[in-house]
Amino acid sequence: MRRYVPLLLCVAIVPPPARALAQSDSTPTYLKDRGTGLPTSMFGTYVRRGELLVYPFFEYYRDNNLEYKPAELGYGLDQDFRGRYRASEGLLFISYGLTDWLAVELEAAVISATLQKAANDTSGVPARIHESGVGDVEGQLRARWMKEADGRPELFSYFEAVAPNQRDKVLIGTPDWELKFGSGLIRGFGWGTVTLRVAAEYALEDAKVELGEYAVEYLKRLSPAWRVYLGLEGAQDEVELITEAQWHFARGAYLKLNNGLGITSKATDWAPEVGIMFSVRVR
User: Fold this and answer.
1) pLDDT at 76
2) Listed residue (167, 212, 171) closest to 83, CA to CA
3) Which pLDDT value is given to residue 25?
4) What is the mean pLDDT of the chain?
5) What is the pLDDT of residues 76-87, one digit of tens each?
6) Residue-by-residue DSSP string for the chain
7) Using one digit for the tens of pLDDT, what is the confidence trace for 13-53?
8) Cα separation of 109 and 93, whole Å?
9) Which of 55, 148, 154, 172 yields a CA-CA distance of 20 to 30 A from 8?
10) pLDDT score of 12 more than 60
11) Which domains, from first to last, does the chain contain?
């Protein structure tokens, strides 16, 4: 779970000439939607060699049937209940393209989260638990092993590490290192770009490997200023539908409007996200 404190941004919106955001006429059809960059962990977002991406954003979580065990909260009873969960989170995402095939990422969060226990929970869990502070701090290495070409997809992999943090907090804490390794394929078509990816996770606290995130994603550039994203993302039995609109309102900046809707009962019911992605050419 990731959550936070609102982050407000004021930006002068002055649309550039449409040609400034368009792909080159010589760009292959399969790259028209995404360009030549490496895929990042942000939906529908790619980073090029020598490019620095900075993305401050806000995310909200609303879940009326969050599954929890009192034992996991420190109250003994090893039984599943469904509580009411609310959280807001402010995050900062940074990515840099080191080469044409390797990129690094860093993400940190500040979060405020509340859990109201289930009416049928007779354990010692307080009626309401509220926690706030620094949330997840994580980093990634992302590598492209094979570029897309006529007749073959792009192949990429990523390694993620989430550092231990707030070990004494049951809602927002990360008790030990969490590691993830995943791979994916990207294929561009005239009607849009499709990405398939899957990952395995290892939590040192549990000392076992589990199936991590898996996703089917679709990205389409509608115009020089607008792109849309649609995805199905899951983790074990939690599956959500994700939509996003991206408005490239200025050279080097675009607005991301993201919305997550839980499809299965264990997924978060609703998780909207909004932020502005800034792009700077470092070299």
Assistant:
1) 85
2) 171
3) 63
4) 91
5) 899 999 999 999
6) --------------PPPHHHHSPPTTS-GGGTTTTTSEE-SSTT-EE-BTEEEEEEEEEEEEEEEEEE-GGGGTS-----EEEEEEEEEEEEEEEEE-SSSEEEEEEEEEEEEEEEPPTT--SS--SEEEEEEEEEEEEEEEEEEE--BTTB-EEEEEEEEE--B-TT-TTT-B-S-EEEEEEEEEEEETTEEEEEEEEEEEETTTTEEEEEEEEEEEEEE-SSSEEEEEEEEEETTEEEEEEEEEEEEETTEEEEEEEEEE-STTS-SEEEEEEEEEEEE--
7) 334 444 434 455 688 999 999 999 999 999 999 999 999 99
8) 9
9) 172
10) no
11) 27-278 (2.40.160.40)
Cα 230 to Cα 57: distance, rounded to the nearest angstrom: 19
**Sign of the dihedral through C-alpha 9, 11, 13, 17:** negative
Which tokens is 105 given? 């990422």
**4 contacts 58 by C-beta, under 8 angstroms:** yes
171 CB contacts (<8 Å, ≥6 apart)? 1, 87, 113, 115, 129, 131
Q: CB-based burial of residue 272 (10 Å sphere; 0-12 exposed, 13-18 middle, 19+ buried)? A: middle
Q: Please, are residues 1 and 113 in contact by the beta-carbon 8 Å criterion? A: yes
124 contacts 40 by C-beta, under 8 angstroms: no
Contacts of 139 (CB under 8 A, 6+ apart): 104, 105, 106, 107, 160, 161
pLDDT tens-place string over residues 203-228: 999 889 999 999 999 999 999 999 99
The pair of three-digit structure tokens given for residue 110, joined into one six-digit string = 């500040």
Kindly list the distances between the CA atom of residue 83 and the CA atoms of 44, 65, 269, in Å, as whole numbers in the listed order.
32, 5, 12
